[in-house]
Each structure stands twice: as C-alpha cells, then as structure tokens.
Amino acid sequence: MRTKILHRKLAAFTLVDLTIVVATAVLFVVFFLPQLARSKRTSCRTFCSNNLKQVGLSFRLFATDNGDVFPMDLSTNLGGTKEFVRTPYSAFRHLLAMSNELSTPFVIICPEDKGRTRAVNWTGLSNRAVSYFIGLEAAETNPQSILSGDRYVRSSRPVANGFLVLTTNDVIRWTKNYHTNHGNLGLGDGSVTGQVDSTNLQQALRDSGVPTNRLALPELPP
Fold first, then answer.
1. Residue 34: how many CB atoms within 10 A of its CB?
2. Is residue 24 part of a domain?
3. Does 144 reside within a domain?
4. Using an 8 Å Cβ cutoff, are 56 and 148 in contact?
5. Is it the case that residue 35 has pLDDT exceeding 80?
C-alpha cells in the first residue's frame, strides 16, 4: 500500500514540475529572448566601434613613424600605399600596410558583417576579410577628415571599381544591412563616433574640409 501511495505522490509531483518548466520556458521566450538579442546587437556594435578605434590609432602610429602622413600619401617603396590609391578594389591594401600597428586582422572585420570572412593572419589578405572603408583624403593634419567607417555606405553616385567618390553636396546614407541604418565613423584625428545615423553622416561629409572625398570600399571584384 505504501508503495502505491508513494508512486501516486511522485507522479503528481512530476506533473506539477513539468507544468512549471513549460511555463518558465514560455516566459523565457516571450520576455528574455528579445532582451538577449538586443544585448547581443549592442555588444556587436560596441565591438565594431572598438575595432575602428584601433584602426584610427594604427593610422596615427603609422603617421608618427612616417613623417606625419598616412599610408595613402606614402610611396610603396617606403611602406605606404600611394600607388594603390587609384587601383581598383584595393581597400585592403591600406590596412595591410599597417599590419605591424594593427597586430591582428581580427580588428578589421565587424562581428555583424556576415558577408565577410575573418582572416587568421595577414598572408593573402583581401577585401573579403575587411568590413571597413578607408577615406583616401584623410590626413592627420585635418582632424575632421573622413578616415574610416562601416562599409555599408551608399550615395546616389554609383560605386565604381571599389570607390565611392563624393562631393560635400552629395547625399550619403547607411544601408539596412547591419547596425540598423546606423554606422561607426572614424576621423582623421583617430576619434570614432559610434552609431552615427545618416543625417549625422551627411553632416560629417560636409564638415570634412575636403571638396571631394574618395572612399575605398572593400568591394569584391566581379
């Protein structure tokens, strides 16, 4: 008799326990998963912003060691990338020139950028492992010049051979691909502004102090 009573008690407990587990799972899905997703997106954006800060710092370190100029203004014979400024699909070369300053290619790719594959080393680096554009007119002597930013930037002007050429009057915007119509923007003084919307991106273009900005985008050759 005691065995049967104990069996009924255990069965009742198991049913109640199952009900609690199911209810908890429902609450988790309804209330906590959206919070976790938002937290993950925020973490990725912070990570991306920190990447660009390291990129900006590396440009300044390079300039300190090379007559106060960025790679784009220094001949390849001296370790720069000046000869690649007009070469199609060459965005990655301006970062490759700073491999010593950057240390690892992990910092040139955004964790939200699913269209790119992280490089494990600098050997064979290509645009496929780069998430950021490079502003070819950027200069340390011009703090407001546009140096770098998330690659999903577009204008009414077409991207040609990996270059987006913009005047201060052109309309510029982020796309929806990641960071939800926002992006991170690095300037010539090494500073980075995170979560810039398209309106502020437009203002940054006007404030760049450069009549024409050429952005080298890490586009992939056709």
1. 10
2. no
3. yes
4. yes
5. no
Count the domains in the chain.
1
Is residue 28 domain-resident? Answer: no
Q: Which residues contact 121 (CB under 8 A, 6 or more apart)?
A: 105
Q: What is the pLDDT of residues 68-90, one digit of tens each?
A: 999 999 999 999 999 999 999 99
Indicate whether 11 belongs to any domain. Answer: no
Other C-beta atoms lying within 10 Å of the C-beta of residue 160? 10
Please tell me the predicted confidence (pLDDT) of residue 68. Answer: 96
Q: How far apart are CA 71 and CA 94, in angstroms?
A: 6
Structural domain of residue 142, as residue ranges?
A: 49-216
**139-187 pLDDT, tens digit each:** 999 999 999 999 999 999 999 999 999 999 999 999 877 788 899 999 9
